[in-house]
Write a structure and sequence with these properties.
Elements lengths: L2 H12 L8 H10 L1 H9 L16 H18 L4 H10 L2 E4 L20 E4 L4 H6 L1 E6 L5 H16 L3 E4 L5 H12 L2 E5 L12 H10 L1 E4 L9 H14 L2 E6 L5 H11 L3 E4 L10 H9 L3 E2 L3 H7 L1 H4 L15 H9 L7 H8 L3 H13 L3 E4 L2 E4 L3
Parallel strand pairs: 3-4, 3-7, 4-5, 5-6, 7-8, 8-9
Antiparallel strand pairs: 1-2, 2-6, 10-11
Length: 380
């Protein structure tokens, strides 16, 4: 196992011991690397380094850090790295770490960012997020809100813009279903990808996985807690260049997603609703007090995001790609009729792991796409 594999393996294990979005752990990873941090935890050692990350922190903070590290060490004792990754693979769940071909570049600006992402589905996460918009809103949505979300997601999908949302009832579910009907969608969950939450969306999640993806910062078996939804919202905002709040009450979690989008300098849009509707109060507040852009349909969204997510008459998105010689050989080995990864690796003379990484790069560049046979050159 090489150094890169050690780092990825360690990050996967860390998702099983630490809560997503922990600032201290993010700093430890930046300073010392995941492998060293995990070795210290699994070995019952003190945090790596010569002292606390924040030397100016007071005694209370230091004691809190010590308690947190002790909790992580106790959880680390119960983690079997081979079992964690093996069980995930058996359920069709893969782990994507920073630096992997499938890792979305927009997440690099998120602080604190994910330690890694658990991904399930036939789509390529990075490729799907290249042209994407977050559609979020109330769980207890009105028929008006669900209609707007469905129409917007469907039209965006017809213009090759992928809808990203949180998989909840109401606006999220309406947006996912409409987007899936015409293309692919990305579902960001606050639980393990083997946990159907909400339970009523189990069939929807299974359908989405055929050509879209489900994403989570938490490993298999993790059930959602209240805080996890708020932490999850920052991921929805970070994956996309813009967030649309379709319908939201005064205290809706969708407003939390909009706040994260604003803090990252992303576009925030809101759909106006009836002035008598309590479920449009949040949208009106965004428009009145926070400078959100007013949108009444997909055409407005496409216009505001024209520089990043505007419509194309046909064909896939193309991004600039400076391909390595190895990646170029993989591209040359992909037949027009499509082939599986193993066949492509055999044709180009490479190993399976290297071929998989190259295909991820090519998919992100819009040069290859999934098909029934495996992979094929993108059709224009």
């Amino acid at each position: 196992m090489n150094e890169r594999d050690d780092q990825v393996r360690a990050r996967a294990c860390l998702t099983a011991v630490a809560e997503p979005g922990n600032t201290w752990l993010a700093e430890l990873l930046d300073r010392h690397g995941a492998a060293r941090v995990w070795t210290a935890l699994a070995g019952g050692q003190a945090p790596p380094g010569t002292g606390p990350v924040n030397a100016d922190a007071g005694p209370e903070t230091h004691r809190a850090m010590e308690r947190t590290w002790k909790q992580w060490r106790a959880r680390a004792e119960r983690v079997d790295p081979d079992g964690l990754l093996g069980a995930s693979a058996e359920r069709g769940v893969r782990f994507v770490a920073p630096g992997d071909p499938e890792w979305p570049g927009r997440l690099d600006g998120l602080d604190p960012g994910p330690y890694g992402l658990w991904v399930r589905g036939g789509g390529d996460l990075r490729n799907l997020c290249l042209r994407s918009v977050a559609l979020v809103g109330a769980r207890a949505a009105t028929s008006y809100g669900e209609h707007v979300a469905s129409e917007m997601a469907c039209t965006l999908g017809e213009h090759s813009v992928v809808t990203v949302s949180g998989g909840a009832y109401g606006i999220d579910g309406a947006a996912h279903r409409a987007a899936h009907a015409v293309g692919a969608t990305v579902v960001v969950l606050a639980c393990g990808l083997d946990v159907d939450y909400p339970r009523g969306h189990a069939a929807l999640f299974a359908d989405v996985a055929r050509r879209g993806v489900l994403v989570s910062e938490r490993p298999l078996g993790a059930t959602p807690r209240a805080r996890d939804f708020l932490v999850r919202n920052r991921l929805i905002a970070a994956l996309t260049p813009g967030t649309v709040v379709v319908e939201a009450g005064r205290r809706s979690g969708a407003l939390n997603t909009a706040t994260h989008a604003t803090s990252m300098g992303r576009s925030v849009m809101a759909v106006p609703g009836p002035v008598t509707s309590a479920l449009s109060v949040g949208c009106h507040a965004l428009l009145r007090d926070h400078g959100a852009l007013c949108v009444t349909g997909a055409a407005d969204v496409l216009e505001y995001l024209a520089g990043e997510a505007g419509p194309e008459p046909s064909g896939p998105v193309r991004v600039e790609a400076d391909l390595s010689p190895e990646t170029e050989r993989v591209l040359a080995a992909v037949p027009r009729t499509g082939a599986g990864t193993a066949s492509i690796a055999l044709e180009c003379g490479g190993d399976l792991e290297g071929t998989m990484r190259a295909l991820g790069v090519l998919a992100a560049a819009g040069l290859v796409e999934r098909c029934a046979a495996g992979w094929r050159p993108t059709r224009t």
